[in-house]
Specification:
The protein is an all-alpha fold. The protein has 12 helices and no strands. α1 (about 1-25) runs antiparallel to α2 (about 35-50), α2 packs parallel to α8 and α3 runs antiparallel to α8 (about 180-195).
Length: about 290
């Protein structure tokens, strides 16, 4: 019964419960430190429930990657928070009139921010699989050999910056309030936990709308032809426009299917991953590949 309940409620717990609590904290005027506590609580929940109801028990076994993933997450999320903190400073330097609909309920503002940003993030992600310079940065994320919630935060900081700019630049130009942007950062983190989750949670028809774990695993397949799908962060909207939305209910993905076929020995330590994109190397075929059939 416990396993069934976890599988049934895991998605709504993170998607609705996590974001709902974040909205409550902001609307009630509580300290933003409660948002940090919320995020840490959901990270801990992801770790615990992935061991209780795993999609693949092998994904729970460390590959010498725990410390590396921690450093990636710590630096990347700290950078996101600093970026949000700088929004008032940037707003003071720019005189563009705000067109952000602040009169809407906060939940609708958040949903609008997610939809707009998702398009930009998806397009940067798509380009990162076709432009060699971007792929070198993005390859850090694709080097993972197992999928669990926490390593959704494992990205080269420069690539995260590019994706963040691709998604948030339109929001900043529209004059998004700092509190909505902070809620968006929380929503991104919760979505990454869901997208990479090793919990075998129920999705149903939502997999046609949301880029959840059963879809995102296909994106991490190690060959270019197979992995050229499902680039979205939140929704499948842009993937349908690009013709890259894909799901095969009969395919079971395991650790041996993940990684980068052209670079099977990609560095695994944090510092080596930071410098790897800038080392001389042959052009990686994975970066310039044909769309999936």
């Amino acid at each position: 019964m416990f396993r069934f309940l976890v599988r049934l409620f895991y998605l709504p717990l993170f998607l609705i419960g996590g974001n709902g609590l974040a909205l409550f904290i902001v609307e009630a005027g509580y300290s933003k430190l409660w948002l940090a506590a919320l995020v840490l609580t959901f990270i801990a929940l992801a770790f615990l429930l992935e061991r209780a109801v795993p999609f693949d028990t092998a994904f729970n076994k460390p590959h010498g990657d725990r410390a590396r993933d921690f450093y990636h997450a710590l630096f990347n999320e700290a950078s996101s928070v600093i970026g949000v903190a700088l929004v008032p400073v940037l707003a003071g330097l720019v005189t563009i009139p705000s067109i952000w609909p602040t009169e809407l309920p906060l939940v609708l503002q958040l949903l609008m921010a997610i939809f707009i940003a998702d398009i930009g993030i998806t397009l940067v992600h798509y380009a990162s699989h076709r432009i060699d310079a971007l792929w070198r940065l993005h390859a850090v994320h694709h080097s993972i050999k197992r999928m669990y919630g926490f390593n959704g935060l494992m990205k080269h900081p420069l690539h995260q910056l590019l994706e963040t700019l691709g998604g948030t630049a339109p929001l900043l130009l529209m004059g998004i309030p700092q509190e909505v942007l902070l809620l968006f950062v929380v929503a991104v983190l919760l979505q990454l936990l869901l997208q990479h989750s090793n919990v075998a949670y129920f999705v149903g028809p939502l997999k046609r709308v949301l880029v959840v774990n059963v879809l995102h695993r296909f994106h991490h397949l190690k060959t270019g032809e197979e992995g050229d799908v499902n680039f979205g962060l939140f929704t499948t909207f842009t993937d349908y426009l690009l013709g890259t939305a894909y799901y095969d209910e009969n395919r079971v993905i395991s650790s041996g299917d993940l990684g980068i076929a052209a670079q099977p020995n990609y560095p695994t330590s944090y510092l080596r991953q930071l410098v790897q994109p800038f080392k001389p190397q042959e052009k990686v075929e994975y970066a310039a590949r044909k769309p999936a059939e």
